[in-house]
Amino acid sequence: MHPATDPGIHLRLHALRAAELRHEAAAFRLRPPRANLRTRLGWSLVELGLRLVNRPAVSGRRLVPPYAA
Fold first, then answer.
1. What three-state secondary structure class fits 64?
2. What is the pLDDT of residues 38-65, one digit of tens each?
3. Cα dihedral angle (53, 55, 59, 62), rounded to 10 degrees?
């Protein structure tokens, strides 16, 4: 059997990768949380986008009155 096709090698590689991912996840959990302002701004933009998408269609009516001279 060719060494590259040995199931034990593949199993060991998967185990090493899983250990790396667990280590990265633990480091991510220990990291301080991101700024609250960034999160609030992001969700505000999502909410605004949803309001724009779900806004009822208005035909012939302007949202902002024209400039009066």
1. coil
2. 888 998 999 999 988 887 766 666 666 6
3. -100
CB-based burial, 46-55: b 16+ in 10 Å, e otherwise: eeeeeeeeee
Tokens 């250990």 belong to residue:
19
Torsion of CA 13, 16, 20, 21, to 10 degrees: 70
How far is C-alpha 1 from the chain's CA centre? 44
9 within 8 A of 3, measured Cβ to Cβ: yes
Task: Say how far apart CA 64 and CA 69 lie, in whole Å.
Answer: 15
Residue 50 CA: distances (Å) to CA of 28, 45, 61: 31, 9, 21
